[in-house]
Amino acid sequence: MLIKNEFEVAEPVDKVWQFFDNIPQVAACLPGAELTEDLGDDRYKGKVAVRMGPVRLQFAGTADITERDEAAKRVVVHASGADEKGRGQASMVVTATLARTGRGTTSVGVTQDLQLSGAAAQYGRGMITDVSAVLMRDFAANMQAWTEERRRSDEGRRRLKCGPEASGSTERAEINRAS
Predict the structure, then answer these.
(1) What is the pLDDT of residues 133-147, one digit of tens each?
(2) Secondary structure letter of residue 53 according to DSSP
(3) End-to-end CA, the chain
(4) Sign of CA pseudo-dihedral 19, 28, 42, 92
(5) Within the chain, which residues score under 50 in pLDDT?
(6) How high is the pLDDT of residue 155?
(7) Rounded to an integer, what distance in angstroms lies between the CA atom of residue 8 and that of residue 37?
(8) What is the predicted pLDDT for the residue at 107?
(9) Structural domain count of the chain
(10) Residue 138's domain spans which residues?
(11) What is the CA radius of gyration of the chain?
């Protein structure tokens, strides 16, 4: 099943690419996802919990970054796992492509090629697409919040770094630290 989502991030494409280059922070922004082990060579073990109607599925498996093209701003991840209660399996190829917009923001296109078996496969395409859309919406909001917080902390570090040097006063550094 092919599922496509697109969202916009209010950051330049290079900043968004830096975000996608750090898989642990990407996973931290994805609702229900948890990395449990870095296997090296762009391979990870993890868990993903998803609720579909009355059923909550928790998959444990692996994710492999199989393509990372900085020039094209494209990353491809192959993920697969099994439900921890033995109710099904899932495999997915996720492709994220970043593009500059004219407003200094970044358009993020996400394509998921999803294969399900067992309990999760009982749900229709509509429900699975809806769940995916909610996950992507929440991921986009979490990612935007993370990039904004990072920008604020970067600006704070610059103020801290420049504050005492500019004024020659440690009191000035304390004031900047608190703001």
Answers:
(1) 888 888 888 888 888
(2) T
(3) 49
(4) negative
(5) 158-179
(6) 61
(7) 30
(8) 95
(9) 1
(10) 2-178
(11) 20
| pTM, rounded to two decimals | 0.78
Contact 7, 143 (CB under 8 A): no
How confident is the model at residue 79, as a pLDDT? Answer: 95
Cα–Cα dist 109/93, whole Å = 14
The domain that holds 145 is classified in CATH as 3.30.530.20
Q: Which residues contact 28 (CB under 8 A, 6 or more apart)?
A: 142, 146
Place of tokens 């067992």: 118
**AA letter at 130:** D
Single-letter amino acid code for the residue at 87: R
21 three-class SS: coil
The burial of 30, by beta-carbon neighbours within 10 Å (0-12 exposed, 13-18 middle, 19 or more buried), is given as middle
Question: Roughly what angle, to the nearest 10 degrees, separates helices 170-178 and 125-167?
Answer: 160
